[in-house]
Amino acid sequence: MLGALASTPFWSMSSVWAQSGALKISHQFPGGTISEGDFRDRLTRMFAAEVGKRSGLKFEIYPGSSLMKTNSQFSALRKGALDFSLVPLNYAGGEVPEVNIGLMPGLVTSYEQGAAWKNSEVGKELSRILLEKGVIIVSWIWQAGGVASRGKPIIDPSDAKGLKVRGGSREMDLILKEAGAAVVTLPSNEIYAAMQTGAMDAAMTSSTSLISFRLEEVSKSLTSGRDKAYWYMLEPLMISKATFDRLTKEQQVAVMAVGAEMEQFATNAARLDDSGVAAVYQKAGAKVVDLNAATVKKWQDIARNTAWKDYAARNDNCAKLLKLAEKLL
């Protein structure tokens, strides 16, 4: 892919552009340091430091949606108005429906399965679609998730009936609606306020966000993803193709190599948060429950008959991606 990308018309102006100014990395998560805090923020800092060492590129990191609104990041990448973003891929589903496969309930049920996407047919097809839209995945990052609730824990689908729940994607919303819930749509950095005011009863989000956004302060129960989960979210570090095209070949190689190296760190950190979130909520006095295989299957069965069918019917690309992803089940 690198060779093909490097042959674009912008290539000739790369050396001059690449040395001027810092590349901007935006994300919605709380800021920290290279060694402390939300691992997604740490990853961007580790990435920037290592790429800088290898290539001389300079970076500026904007945590907490401090550069632009959370839901504006993907569009900005496509236009070349933003260089890098680490963001849940499905947040862009409104403009590129294919990316909703990044948070498809029941489709990915382990970190190993998610990691296999990158070099499999589904990963290559997703990368092709994103490239056409002006975006390149630098680091493939998967996260399991759980459910924080102001009341009783949501374990079985029937537990969601009558509650106002944030699913996080069109497809998650479909399974919640099938279970009898009313869905609430907002990015993860707005969950706390909605739960605090009672505008929302429960929220599905990654283990890391369950910790970083301090949702234990507004929750009485947690369904964790530490053992089993019925959804895993693709939350990649991405670069604008316009930015990538302007880098020298050596800089491109550094960006992609370091991005790949960050993936194992991300998986290890996500697993630690899957375990650590339970302790955080227990300490705050919340009830913590885990899922078993039978419960995961109940949610997966609902997803097959609702979210998966809806997604496949969106367009031919969606249908193809779903078929390719199912090969890894």
From TrEMBL:
Entry's Gene Ontology BP terms: C4-dicarboxylate transport; transmembrane transport
State the UniProt keywords alphabetically: Signal, Transport
Record's keyword annotation contains Signal: yes
Determine the domain of life of the protein's source: Bacteria
Pfam family of the protein (one):
DctP
Give coiled-coil spans as residue ranges: none
Q: Which InterPro entries match?
A: DctP_fam, TRAP_DctP_sf
UniProt keyword annotation of Signal present: yes
Q: What protein family is recorded? A: Belongs to the bacterial solute-binding protein 7 family.
Report what the protein is called: C4-dicarboxylate ABC transporter
Classification of source organism:
Bacteria, Pseudomonadati, Pseudomonadota, Betaproteobacteria, Burkholderiales
